[in-house]
Amino acid sequence: MRRILLAAALATAAISPAEAETAVLAGGCFWCVESDMDALKGVTSTISGYAGGTAKNPTYKNHEGYLEAVKVEFDPAIISYDELVARFLRTIDVTDAAGQFCDRGESYTTAIFATSPEQLASAEAAIKEAGAALGKTVATPVKPFTTFTDAEDYHQNYYLGKNRVFTRFGWIKQSDAYKRYRESCGRDVRVKQVWGKDAFTDGRINGDS
User: Fold this and answer.
1) Which active-site residues does the annotation give?
2) C-alpha dihedral sign at 77, 29, 69, 196
3) Is residue 82 part of a domain?
4) Which of 13, 65, 99, 189 is in the most buried spot, having the most CB atoms within 10 Å?
5) In whole angstroms, what is the distance from residue 63 CA to residue 67 CA?
6) How far from 202 is each of 36, 59, 188, CA to CA, in Å?
7) Do the domain assignments include residue 104?
8) In the 8-state DSSP scheme, what is residue 135?
9) How many CB atoms lie within 10 A of CB 158?
């Protein structure tokens, strides 16, 4: 009986689609962005995909003109769009216009895709604030949202995968392959170099104890 009541309570408390808001963020490898955004309190779902291109039916093997991106659904009563974007910027190298970390090329460049005039203004303000905080030019642009196509199923929640996959490290569990990729790519090391104590890695702000 307790389980039934708990399930009912959780269903009642769950955020409705009408209350949720959506952000679309490109920060290099979408596996990593999904992992970072899922760590934020107030984020209710994330979907890896391809954003900003014009060609039909983009795929992982062929998404020219698209950026790897993540659609982030969040509860604005817990985390505002302003805070979400500020945290996102501190998970990437905002000074790099040619890719992110070991991943180079257009599809791995960064961007914030604004879905409304309000998001556009908020994101531009966050970019300005980030530049002032770093004393450097921020290479991450703010773009009007146009298109988003979900990535293939095997990319979703890749960092949590339990299947064994073959990599340059041999056959290992998918979540372990993700950790080794992220470490070997130098993502967190570089983010900490750029942002110092304000870096947001491993699900926390670097300056936290």
Assistant:
1) 29
2) positive
3) yes
4) 99
5) 8
6) 7, 28, 8
7) yes
8) T
9) 21
In CATH, what number is assigned to the domain containing residue 62? 3.30.1060.10
What the block records as the tokens of 88 is 């996102």
Does any domain span residue 194?
Answer: no
- E strand map for 39-81: 43-51, 67-74
- Model pTM? 0.89
**Structural domain contains residue 37:** yes
Secondary structure class of 48 (helix, strand, coil): strand
DSSP class of 101 = T
Q: What is the pLDDT of residues 19-58, one digit of tens each?
A: 899 999 999 999 999 999 999 999 999 999 999 999 999 9
Q: How many domains does the chain have?
A: 1
SS3 44: strand
Task: Give the C-alpha separation, 9 to 207, whole Å.
Answer: 36
Domain assignment of residue 39, given as a range: 17-155
| Token pair listed for 147 | 């298109």
The separation between CA 33 and the C-alpha centre of its own chain, rounded to angstroms, equals: 3
Burial class of residue 172 (count of CB atoms within 10 Å of its CB; 0-12, 13-18, 19+)? middle
